[in-house]
Amino acid sequence: MRVLGIETSCDETGVAVYDTAPGAGLLAHAVYSQIALHAEYGGVVPELASRDHVRKLLPLVRQTLAEAGLAPADLDGVAYTAGPGLVGALLVGAGTARALAWALDVPAVAVHHMEGHLLAPLMEDNPPAPPFVALLVSGGHTQLVAVEAIGRYRLLGETLDDAAGEAFDKTAKLMGLPYPGGPQLAALAERGTPGAFRFARPMTDRPGLDFSFSGLKTQVLLAWQQSDQSEQTRADIARGFEDAVVDTLAIKCGRALDAAGSDTLVIAGGVGANKRLRARLQEMCARRGGRACFPRPSLCTDNGAMIAFAGALRLEAGQHEDTSVRVTPRWDMATLPPLAAASP
């Protein structure tokens, strides 16, 4: 089954084609980022994001199909992100996907954005098999999920305020780094001196698997305001902040593995591309006799490949949508139907 995947939940327009035939897999994928469009505003402007998706989506579909060596008539299904996300951006992708599916007379399926992230590592060689624990860590989400089977998810813990990626971006902005701040801060931290600044590991001194990162921003702001504000100090503070986030995530992941009785950890989402986080979680899981599984860095951020793959699994299970265009800006992943419960 050849499935076109469309991702427009926020400020990346992602398109991909995934083929479920043995040995085929991901045929082509492309992502257009709106970073330059939103940079002058210091964050994503929802209406501008929607308009740019309208401009870029169909050309990107044509480009991706050409790279895959396919015509539209060669597709067997269409998958699209229906939530969570910005409602206007979601509607652009959903409307385009539904129109394509109707014109081609193929089924379409709505995909949960975070399920797409969660399943992205399964596209790699030697993919993990459920049950396992997933850390979904991005600009909009930080969650620990027990994955009992594809479509059977149990929330173990989540952030009570800022997501980890959001904390990276906001902290970078406090220190005057350009948008998008998260990657800039991580790059700056590479030049920082370990231990020069030490910040709290929030909520690790109490039981539970929830996160809180908002207080770290305040600690960083105070440290920055009271420092000499030199470039080396900026790098040292960035390193201290990154170490605090990485340590916190690692501690909570270890607890989640214990709680779920698992030795396999799947990490997905934009922050999953962070080099220090990858190294720390790989080392932690290896020490426990388990493994940490990541998608390739290009599939950590929002992309159409993860939507095409997740959609292909559900389409093959017989799930599809009717002809109406619906999106769900707030969508609990625990409400998704398991694949085993799909209608024939």
From TrEMBL:
<feature type="binding site">
    <location>
        <position position="302"/>
    </location>
    <ligand>
        <name>Fe cation</name>
    </ligand>
</feature>
<feature type="binding site">
    <location>
        <position position="182"/>
    </location>
    <ligand>
        <name>substrate</name>
    </ligand>
</feature>
<keyword id="KW-0012">Acyltransferase</keyword>
<comment type="similarity">
    <text>Belongs to the KAE1 / TsaD family.</text>
</comment>
<feature type="binding site">
    <location>
        <position position="113"/>
    </location>
    <ligand>
        <name>Fe cation</name>
    </ligand>
</feature>
<feature type="binding site">
    <location>
        <position position="274"/>
    </location>
    <ligand>
        <name>substrate</name>
    </ligand>
</feature>
<keyword id="KW-0408">Iron</keyword>
<feature type="binding site">
    <location>
        <begin position="136"/>
        <end position="140"/>
    </location>
    <ligand>
        <name>substrate</name>
    </ligand>
</feature>
<dbReference type="InterPro" id="IPR017861">
    <property type="entry name" value="KAE1/TsaD"/>
</dbReference>
<feature type="binding site">
    <location>
        <position position="169"/>
    </location>
    <ligand>
        <name>substrate</name>
    </ligand>
</feature>
<dbReference type="Pfam" id="PF00814">
    <property type="entry name" value="TsaD"/>
</dbReference>
<keyword id="KW-0963">Cytoplasm</keyword>
<dbReference type="InterPro" id="IPR000905">
    <property type="entry name" value="Gcp-like_dom"/>
</dbReference>
<keyword id="KW-0819">tRNA processing</keyword>
<dbReference type="InterPro" id="IPR043129">
    <property type="entry name" value="ATPase_NBD"/>
</dbReference>
<feature type="binding site">
    <location>
        <position position="117"/>
    </location>
    <ligand>
        <name>Fe cation</name>
    </ligand>
</feature>
<dbReference type="GO" id="GO:0005506">
    <property type="term" value="F:iron ion binding"/>
</dbReference>
<dbReference type="GO" id="GO:0002949">
    <property type="term" value="P:tRNA threonylcarbamoyladenosine modification"/>
</dbReference>
<dbReference type="GO" id="GO:0005737">
    <property type="term" value="C:cytoplasm"/>
</dbReference>
<comment type="function">
    <text>Required for the formation of a threonylcarbamoyl group on adenosine at position 37 (t(6)A37) in tRNAs that read codons beginning with adenine. Is involved in the transfer of the threonylcarbamoyl moiety of threonylcarbamoyl-AMP (TC-AMP) to the N6 group of A37, together with TsaE and TsaB. TsaD likely plays a direct catalytic role in this reaction.</text>
</comment>
<dbReference type="GO" id="GO:0061711">
    <property type="term" value="F:tRNA N(6)-L-threonylcarbamoyladenine synthase activity"/>
</dbReference>
<feature type="domain" description="Gcp-like">
    <location>
        <begin position="26"/>
        <end position="309"/>
    </location>
</feature>
<protein>
    <recommendedName>
        <fullName>tRNA N6-adenosine threonylcarbamoyltransferase</fullName>
        <ecNumber>2.3.1.234</ecNumber>
    </recommendedName>
</protein>
<keyword id="KW-0808">Transferase</keyword>
<keyword id="KW-0479">Metal-binding</keyword>
<dbReference type="InterPro" id="IPR022450">
    <property type="entry name" value="TsaD"/>
</dbReference>
<dbReference type="InterPro" id="IPR017860">
    <property type="entry name" value="Peptidase_M22_CS"/>
</dbReference>
